[in-house]
Amino acid sequence: MAKIIIDEMRCKGCGLCTIACPGKLLSLTEKINLQGYTPATITCQDKCTGCALCAEMCPDVAITVFK
Amino acid sequence: MQQVFKRPVSLKDVQTHFCPGCHHGTIHRLVTEAMDEFDVQKRTIGVASVGCSVFLYGYFDIDVVEAPHGRAPAVATGVKRARPDSFVFTYQGDGDLAAIGTAEIIHAANRGEDITVIFVNNTTYGMTGGQMAPTTLVGQKTSTSPYGRNQQKDGAPIRMAELLAQLEGVAFSARVAVNSPKNIIDAKRQIKKAFRYQVEGKGFSFIEALSACPTNWGMNALAANERVGSEMADYFRLGVFKNTDNM
């Protein structure tokens, strides 16, 4: 059981986490945050293994990982 | 559940001004993580350069001196000599280190000053509007080379990590990239090695980090990230060019 939390206010929607996730579980939403970007979201939390590669890749340190 | 990934203590919990997909944020995190692991935050004095890296003092929870353009290694030399117990590093871009600051970096390296230099190479002047830098790749279009960099006219890009590795005073020189989780993990390992040289008082250590500048390259974040691993890493080979201690 693993869980990630994406800080939607800090995410700039660059999408680098979407290519880092081995399970391709991350995608960008269509809603716009306060900065004017479309933040990333996890589509299937249950499949997350907590490898933290998305967090390693995130330039804005917007992802925290629990395992 | 345990938290397995969190923000480094030395990295302030603030929003950065960097563009989406800019690798400065990643390199900031790696440097502060290494700082935390060596437990040097309280005695660290960072020297910021001019460029997008100028707001180092806003993001790193350490003492920072702001150096004039290109002069960070000279300022760091003074700081380290005046306060030899402190941990001193500079954080510079390619327009700063490889252009206006060439004299300072070469002589600080040649003297073997006991400092660490983090050099962020994104092949352009990021902050001032994407002008051609000494590291701009041949053929790359910038605002001052609209037809692409011409090798006959402008020379070939400078490979700083290799250049500095030739100097006697340099203890450690490596080039890393931060375009994939694998490269990021490797970059962190090399940054820690560079820090160890200084923590153990073994001389000048240099890290060149290949980084993307999506805004000035005119690309989206993913395409720019891809370019780092292909075009850039082709010319600027990743690796360790000097490791005097074989750590």
Please sum up the structure shown.
Chain A is of the alpha+beta class and 67 residues long. In chain A, 15% of the residues lie in helices and 21% in strands.
Keywords for this structure?
heterodimer, A: 67 residues, alpha+beta, Alpha-Beta Plaits, two-stranded antiparallel ribbon, 4 strands, 21% strand, B: 247 residues, alpha/beta, Rossmann fold, 7-stranded mixed beta sheet, globular
Secondary-structure-derived class of chain B: alpha/beta
Number of strands of chain A: 4
Helical content of chain B stands at 25-40%
Span of the ends, CA to CA of chain A: 6 Å
- Most extensive chain contact? A-B, 28 and 29 residues
| Largest sheet, strands/sense/barrel of chain A | 2 strands, antiparallel
Shape of chain A: globular
Question: Mind explaining what this structure looks like?
Answer:
- The complex is a heterodimer of chains A (67) and B (247).
- Chain A is of the alpha+beta class and 67 residues long.
- Chain A has one domain: Alpha-Beta Plaits (2-Layer Sandwich).
- Chain A has helices spanning 16-20, 53-57, and strands spanning 3-6, 26-28, 40-42, 63-66.
- Chain A has a two-stranded antiparallel ribbon. Chain A has a two-stranded antiparallel ribbon with strand order 2-3.
- Chain A starts with a strand and ends with a strand.
- Chain B is globular.
- In chain B, helix 8 links the parallel strand 8 and strand 9 (204-210).
- Chain B starts with a strand and ends with a strand.
- Chain B has one domain: Thiamin diphosphate (ThDP)-binding fold, Pyr/PP domains (Rossmann fold).
- Chain B is of the alpha/beta class.
- The mean pLDDT of chain B is 96.
- Chain B is built from 10 helices and 10 strands.
- In chain B, the strands form 2 sheets. A 7-stranded mixed β-sheet of chain B has the order 3-2-4-5-9-8-10, with helices on both faces. In chain B, strands 6-7 form a two-stranded antiparallel sheet.
- The interface between A and B is medium-sized, with 28 and 29 residues.
